[in-house]
Design goal:
There is one protein chain. The protein is an alpha+beta fold. It contains eight helices and 15 strands. α1 packs across α8. The radius of gyration is 19 Å and the shape is globular.
Amino acid sequence: MPARTHYISDRMLPDAIRSACDKRGITVTSFSDDWILKLQKDQQEEWIHVYSFSCNNAAAAANASDKVATSVILESAALPIVPHVTARTYISRARRTPDIKAIANNGPVVIKPIHGHGAQDVARYDDIDEALTFINASSIPAWAISPFLDLTKELRIILFDDEPLLAYEKTNPVIDDGLRLFNLSQGATAVTVDLNSLDPAILDLAKRAISTIGLRLAAVDIVFDKESEPFILEINTGFSLEHYARQSADNKKRAYKIYDSVIGKIFK
């Protein structure tokens, strides 16, 4: 499996947060080289941990960071999803369970760390037994398996309290061992979508997903198959705008505006 990286040391977020806070008289205290920020004004105190904001409920954010938890919670609300099942936990080895057999359905599968992001360690296997063998030999303790889908498009919608802040399509995916990687960190290109032209049904799907998980601020990734059917792939509470902002000057302006809006909503 090829190594993939998307680490950014010179992040845009701290400067954007400071700019938004300076306008509002909010004090920013930095820890760990700007990876942790404490925001204070009067009696209100908020935190940013890397890309995660304290305005979200901790349990809801934990569910969103777990790909299997997100899948089963959204499925319980009858939302269209890309199903994920647990292939290996911290205490058990991966094996052919009924859930895994149903997911594989004698076809190719995609494996990924349950708490992974940025396409790190994501891989396709045509044979489920080969996938399970790899998982059991891995040092990563918790894995998820999903069916391989021939996807044609991925759309990200960022919302705060049901208000869409940004939508963009991820285009020019990188092809890696038969997988289309729509991650900007891996080289895909963001095409901003006018919020006024966003399909109301797709926007409603994103709102329902965030509401079902119990979040205020999050990015919903919706994928489409060849029949243009939408499926919720995942929900990100610690979403990054770093790669989006680096793709154009206009994108960078939008990113700063989004963080300004977020801070304005948190410190009303």
